[in-house]
Design a protein that fits this description.
Layout: E1 5-16, E2 19-30, E3 34-38, H1 45-52, E4 60-65, E5 68-69, H2 75-81, E6 83-86, H3 98-107, H4 127-136, H5 152-164, E7 170-174, H6 182-195, E8 200-204, H7 208-214, E9 217-222, E10 225-230, H8 232-235, H9 239-244, H10 250-254
Parallel strand pairs: 3-8, 3-9, 6-7, 7-8
Antiparallel strand pairs: 1-2, 1-4, 4-5, 9-10
Helix pairs in contact: 3-4, 3-5, 5-6
Length: 256
Amino acid sequence: MTADVILETHGLTKEFRGFVAVRNVNLQVRRGTIHALIGPNGAGKTTVFNLLTKFLAPTSGRILYHGRDITAMKPADVARLGIVRSFQISAVFAHLSVLENVRVALQRPLGTSFHFWKPESTLAGLDRRALELLDAVGLPEFADRPAAELPYGRKRALEIATTLALDPAMLLLDEPMAGMGHEDIGRIAGLIRRIARDRTILMVEHNLNVVADLSDTITVLSRGEVLAEGPYAAVSRDPRVMEAYMGTTVEEAGHA
């Protein structure tokens, strides 16, 4: 592993009762970059995410983080190392306020997430950091609003704030633009660009215009294998990528 590589896989493979969902994936994510995983439906992108965050155990292969073998680790242990994942479906506490959602996330590293019987005044010390995180994701004016009342795109921003509360070195985003309108896409893309200034981001994303705009490196998966890798300009012209997207170029697929 070279010094600028934060996450690396060797021969990563996952079988489900004879079906090979991921086959011999060798991935290198460079520190301080935005790296995108793309591919047609069923390409194995989410399975790779689940393997990296230890929600699935690989059939074979290794995963290295900062040069350390994390293949056999549990999800909570991987998160404590600094790899934090957000999910495609927004996961916030709907009936807590926006500020309270972030505050609960800040309690996790302290081991006090479930101390609900303590008076609220004991948690006030977390409010300053919670407000800083809300400001970072463009939500300070929503601090006192119940999370259930947020528009969908704002809920995704809140979810990113709760993941940032864990102070990750590496953030894995699973389809952060899913279900969003144009305005929300632009807002979240700008947010991802800002938070990538001091951390590494690996994301699965179907909106290829966003991928082209944000990503330093793109890995294309097809049928569980790496089909192509490189900057968008090179990947978008690869004939194998065009074929994987059913005879279209990546640019055309992004407008579909």
